[in-house]
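Regression test case RT-17, inverse folding.

Input:
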């Protein structure tokens, strides 16, 4: 009997050792990465378990192709055409534009109008993050606000066309496009035969699969006071997307006041509540991106209760006085690393 137990112990030790060396040989370090400047930000694609650098070309080409459809800054894009035809007629658009517009309107409804994809004229007026950034006059804001109303964005799904009902209106997908593109890029990566990858579109992170040894990726939750990549805590996750919205991302300062890039469509001014940032963790980047902007606009109380009422969505809220509020499902998964912050719930 004793001999049998010893044998089992030895056998399991051998098994353990071989599984460890298997992990080391095929381990987490077998990956390739490539970065580029696209979507007005730095993007990095990391592919696990491959050395085939030629895979990057179709991936980056695909991201560019989506940008060409969805960016208001590109003159041949669907959004640009919609702007030109605003107040005049319906415009045929791609499936991608229909999909992102539909999702945006869902979030407008969920946020009682705080998330508004038709905010283009106001965003352009402020020009935050561009050489033209400035504080507009009250009159300018009032005038531009007359052109903002997501209810005037009409989608004809059958004919695949969209119309902006008032001349001068235009759509800006800045709050949602990176999330959509991250999910589509992950699909492309899977099509190319890769199961495990990280898609990082300027901090909009999607974790596809797991690391090579089947363990979770560690992903940092952005520290709103540090340059991109600095984190305040980590979570371990796989098959998830983490997206942060905050007042630190694009802003300028004038007379000691910070003017950031997420704007309240009711006032025409940058959203002003007790939040510094919100990170959303969910299974799709589309949802994480839309919801991080939405919850930042909603503020702590409403935002947190929205997240707690959604299945499979978690969040880390950071307030201006460095307090962290976690959604119910993430409390045992989040590890705080920057002690300047305090978890309070
Ligand atoms: P980031 O672009 O930094 O990742 P977000 O996803 O939060 O951050 O999106 C911010 C962008 O969304 C702005 O730069 C602007 O283009 C757009 N935007 C700003 N305010 C709103 C709003 N209330 N509703 C919809 N889009 C907005
Ligand atoms: Mg967003």
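Golden output:
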């Amino acid at each position: 009997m004793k001999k049998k137990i010893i044998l089992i112990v030895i056998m399991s030790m051998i098994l353990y050792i071989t599984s460890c060396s298997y992990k080391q040989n095929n381990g987490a370090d077998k990956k390739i990465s490539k970065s580029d400047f696209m979507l007005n930000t730095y993007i990095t694609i990391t592919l696990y378990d491959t050395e085939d650098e030629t895979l990057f070309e179709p991936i980056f080409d695909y991201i560019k192709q989506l940008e060409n459809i969805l960016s208001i800054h590109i003159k041949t894009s669907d959004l640009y055409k919609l702007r030109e035809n605003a107040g005049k007629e319906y415009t045929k658009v791609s499936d991608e534009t229909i999909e992102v517009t539909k999702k945006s309107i869902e979030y407008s409804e969920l946020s009682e109008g705080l998330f508004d994809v038709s905010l283009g004229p106001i965003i352009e007026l402020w020009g935050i993050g561009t050489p033209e950034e400035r504080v507009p006059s009250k009159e300018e804001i009032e005038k531009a606000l007359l052109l903002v109303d997501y209810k005037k964005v009409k989608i004809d799904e059958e004919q695949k066309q969209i119309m902006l009902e008032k001349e001068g209106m235009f759509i800006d997908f800045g709050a949602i496009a990176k999330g959509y593109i991250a999910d589509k890029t992950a699909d492309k990566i899977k099509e190319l035969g890769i199961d495990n990858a990280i898609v990082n579109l300027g901090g909009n992170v999607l974790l596809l699969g797991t690391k090579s040894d089947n363990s979770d990726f560690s992903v940092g939750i952005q520290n709103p006071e540090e340059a991109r990549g600095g984190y305040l805590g980590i979570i371990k996750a796989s098959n998830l997307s983490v997206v942060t919205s905050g007042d630190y991302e694009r802003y300028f300062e004038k007379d000691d006041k910070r003017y950031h890039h997420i704007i309240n469509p009711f006032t025409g001014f940058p959203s002003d509540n007790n939040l510094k940032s919100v990170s959303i963790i969910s299974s799709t980047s589309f949802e994480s991106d839309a919801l991080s902007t939405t919850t930042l606009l909603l503020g702590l109380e409403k935002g947190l209760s929205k997240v707690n009422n959604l299945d499979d969505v978690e969040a880390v809220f950071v307030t201006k006085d460095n307090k962290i509020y976690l959604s119910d499902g993430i409390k045992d998964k989040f590890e705080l690393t920057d002690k300047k912050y305090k978890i309070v719930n």
